[in-house]
Amino acid sequence: MTQVIPSARAQARHPTRLVKIGPVQVGSSAAIVVQSMTNTDTADHVATAIQIAQLARAGSELVRITVNNDESAKAVPKIAEQLAKMNVAVPIIGDFHYNGHKLLTDNPACAELLAKYRINPGNVGQGQKRDAQFAQIVELACKYDKPVRIGVNWGSLDQSVLARMMDANNQRAEPWDVSAVMREALVVSALESAQMAEEVGLAGDRIILSCKVSSVQDLIATYRELARRCDYPLHLGLTEAGMGSKGIVASTAALGVLLQEGIGDTIRVSLTPEPNGARTQEVVVAQEILQTMGLRAFTPMVTACPGCGRTTSSFFQELAQSVQTYVRDQMPVWREQYDGVENLTLAVMGCVVNGPGESKHANIGISLPGTGETPAAPVFIDGEKAMTLRGDNIANEFRGILDNYVATKYVKKIG
């Protein structure tokens, strides 16, 4: 008997509390949120505001900034003012290490304007100072009604927790390997810090957790265990993912597994930018992970064939790239004018083998002629052949068809 394969879809989300970060909701049944982080000197409020605006317009729904000294803390109100002038309203998260307790205390305007604080338990302080300084940040979060992400990182893990886990491991009849102990220390650090935050007075629905590592398998194992042991919303990210295709592949491999298992409420793809490369690439990759998995829709996606011996011309590749770039550039405008346009599907195919069939599955598809085929490109709209394009102006004509489809098929937003 032929086996029937059920429709592929991500499993039900791991149940978590709902946390509000300004107008953005994280956890529970809310959509998985894309976030990113600036790499400008925060003290340069103009450059930082410009990059925040770029990230927000690319689709980042939360943006984190470094707050590492008095100058950067004092820049936060100026950044907020600059963003208001630019009509950008994305929530800004303050990333604190070592001196967050002092910076937030000394700069109340910074503490008030940030939408969320990120605390790394391993970088709050050492010994007796650690608990006091952690509590001080949490008290300020309570005072200003701010949520907190307790973000553990294996590159800066609280050594006292790790030492305790190592001692406990030595007492086991069958000790765990070092990687397993490290993963347990990450989870314990996050959970104990969350418990401490609640004891100080921070409500449980104001806490988000993360346990970031740079190894794909360790990240998957750590988050599975963290999800099993708590109901706080979880922020996913492969830390120090790397540059280019390596960073993209590693992040996708790790996050894809966890998201498919219903684990994760916010994500960040921590790409190292190419020299002079756009910071917004990490936002695009995060969106594409969620969209290709069917978890969210952000922009029309283009299906295109990889090419083969039947497609010796590069025209279909150039057209596919042109169309993908065009729809991404148009999305900020379309998003304001039309409802549902992000669900539009497009296909740019290179020859007759799969071209017409694949094009019929898209809202708009074009099947370009392969090597030796008749120089004509049939266009399919909602599964039906609508026209045939010929000549040197196919790219512009196809974009015109796309514009007309969007304008006529999607209901315009009012107001």
From TrEMBL:
Record-annotated residues binding [4Fe-4S] cluster? Answer: C305, C308, C351, E358
InterPro entries tied to this protein: Dihydropteroate_synth-like_sf (IPR011005), IspG_bac (IPR016425), IspG_bac-typ (IPR004588), IspG_C (IPR058579), IspG_TIM (IPR058578), NO2/SO3_Rdtase_4Fe4S_sf (IPR045854)
Query: What keywords tag this UniProt record?
Result: 4Fe-4S, Iron, Iron-sulfur, Isoprene biosynthesis, Metal-binding, Oxidoreductase
- EC numbers listed for it are 1.17.7.3
| Bound cofactor: record note | Binds 1 [4Fe-4S] cluster.
Enzyme class label: oxidoreductase
Write one Pfam family the protein is assigned to: GcpE_C
The metabolic or biological pathway listed in the UniProt record of this protein is: Isoprenoid biosynthesis; isopentenyl diphosphate biosynthesis via DXP pathway; isopentenyl diphosphate from 1-deoxy-D-xylulose 5-phosphate: step 5/6
Ranges for the IspG C-terminal domain? Answer: 302-401
Keyword Cytoplasm part of the UniProt annotation = no
**Which chemical reaction does it catalyze?**
(2E)-4-hydroxy-3-methylbut-2-enyl diphosphate + oxidized [flavodoxin] + H2O + 2 H(+) = 2-C-methyl-D-erythritol 2,4-cyclic diphosphate + reduced [flavodoxin]
> Which co-factors does it depend on?
[4Fe-4S] cluster
The family database entries (HAMAP family) matched by this protein are listed as: IspG
**Protein name (database record):** 4-hydroxy-3-methylbut-2-en-1-yl diphosphate synthase (flavodoxin)
- The organism encoding this protein is Uliginosibacterium flavum
